[in-house]
Design goal:
There is one protein chain. This protein is α/β, with parallel strands linked by helices and 162 residues long. The two termini are 18 Å apart. Helices cover 38% and strands 18% of the residues.
Length: 162
């Protein structure tokens, strides 16, 4: 299982995933789980997923969905439509959104397995350093959610392999 945290720390709340990765480094997770901070290196994430080593990927990112800033989401996206979104931006190796990551993976002949997104509604993604207070509060909730999901998923994988 891969917990792939993405975001840009120079655009305020877009740094949500990066901060979650920093906090997860302090948590004890099952040995089958790898946590990685990809920052703005979406192409690197696509290549990592191309390897096919992960049954499940948890993508952690700022996720604008129109709810109150700081709202934390657990989403199981439709990867078919996500990879076909018009703003995939495949040419930009440093600013790929989730749709672009999965479109790139598909173009390389890979499949991601199961994907979950843990996202947080941003208050601002304008230039600036540091998370807004409401998104910073969402980080702890997201970390707790990820620890629960990863533990549950890894336990299920261990039981099915037994």
């Amino acid at each position: 299982m891969l917990v792939a945290c993405v975001g840009n720390i120079f655009f305020s709340d877009d740094g949500f995933g990066v901060e979650v990765a920093r906090r997860l480094a302090e948590c004890e997770l099952p040995p089958q789980a790898k946590v990685a901070d990809y920052g703005i290196r979406g192409m690197h994430l696509a290549y990592e997923l191309l390897d096919g080593a992960y049954d499940t990927t948890v993508l952690v990112d700022a996720t604008p969905r129109g709810n109150a800033p700081g709202t934390v989401y657990l989403i199981e996206p439709d990867l078919q439509s996500l990879g076909r979104s018009p703003d995939t931006g495949c040419g930009d190796a440093h600013g790929m959104n989730p749709g672009a990551i999965f479109a790139m993976l598909a173009s390389l002949g890979g499949t991601p397995g199961r994907v979950l997104i843990v996202g947080c509604e941003p208050l601002s993604t304008e230039e600036g350093m540091g998370l807004s207070d409401v998104v910073a509060q969402g980080v702890a909730q997201a970390v707790s959610l990820i620890v629960d999901v990863v533990t549950r998923e890894c336990d299920a994988i261990s039981h099915s392999a037994a």
